[in-house]
Amino acid sequence: MMMARSIPTPLWFAAAFFPMVVAQIVRLQQFDPAAWIVWDYAGRLGALAVLSAIPAARTVAFRFEPLRIALWEVTVWIVGIVLADHYLGGWIRRTINGLLPATVLGAYPEVQGWLLVVDIVFGLGLVALSEEIVFRRCARHLLQSYLDDGFALVLATSFLFGAYHWWTGFGNIGEAVVIGGLLMTLYRRSGALWPAVLGHYLTDIVNFAL
Questions:
Q1: pLDDT digits (tens, 9 = 90+) for 100-117
Q2: Long-range contacts of 105-108, Cβ-Cβ distance < 8 Å, separation of 24 or more
Q3: Which pLDDT tens digit goes with each residue over 49-107?
Q4: DSSP 8-state secondary structure symbol assigned to residue 62
Q5: For the purposes of burial, counting CB atoms within 10 Å of the CB of 208, is it exposed (0-12), middle (13-18) or buried (19 or more)?
Q6: 74 phi, psi to nearest 5 deg
Q7: For the chain, percent helix, then strand, then coil, each to nearest 5?
Q8: What is the number of alpha carbons within 13 Å of residue 78 lying toward its C-beta?
Q9: Is 86 exposed, middle or buried (0-12, 13-18, 19+ CB in 10 A)?
Q10: Are 64 and 141 spatial neighbours (Cβ–Cβ below 8 Å)?
């Protein structure tokens, strides 16, 4: 029996990715906003639980990384990413999904009241944290041995991030590829993951809450 510490990176990455994809498939069948959100949270928490349970994954996913750039540069990057997503990403999403509406297999639910507050504060934070850990930190660790740590890796992780948005339409996939590339570039430059998490969180707030 394979010991947890010796599980190779591709296997524990796939194990963490699995509950996120399963949750996507199941929630497409949910028409109640609360049920949709519960499945969404379950998939993301499941991925983090898998990463926590496997020692080899835990040392990658939850490691401390010191910030290598000034806070003013972090601020400039985050503001730029939020604006790029809102304007360029929004244009890509609207244009391509407008031309290819059949590629949109589902939509995010419209929530109100206390559920909206919970989703903005906790849900979007969970989205940003889980996706940055999986698609930036863990995917970078997975692909570095194959692609080094340059443009090819940024491109590959961005397409992986875009593919994760398969159910939202080709326009959203294109938007996710662009923003995923910017977030990975920020992560590589800053040396720490939290600027990318914060940028992701603020981007989602602008998209979903404003």
A1: 999 999 988 888 899 999
A2: 105/28, 105/166, 105/167, 105/168, 105/169, 106/27, 106/28, 106/167, 106/168, 107/168, 108/208
A3: 999 999 999 999 999 999 999 999 999 999 999 999 999 999 999 999 999 999 999 98
A4: T
A5: middle
A6: -60, -45
A7: 80, 0, 20
A8: 22
A9: middle
A10: no
State both tokens at 197. Answer: 């998490």
Q: Model confidence over 142-188: pLDDT tens digits? A: 999 899 899 999 999 999 999 999 999 999 999 999 999 999 999 99
Tell me which amino acid residue 202 is: L
Both structure tokens of 150: 């340059």
Tokens of 202: 């603020």
Tokens standing for residue 192: 């720490």
Amino acid at 203: T
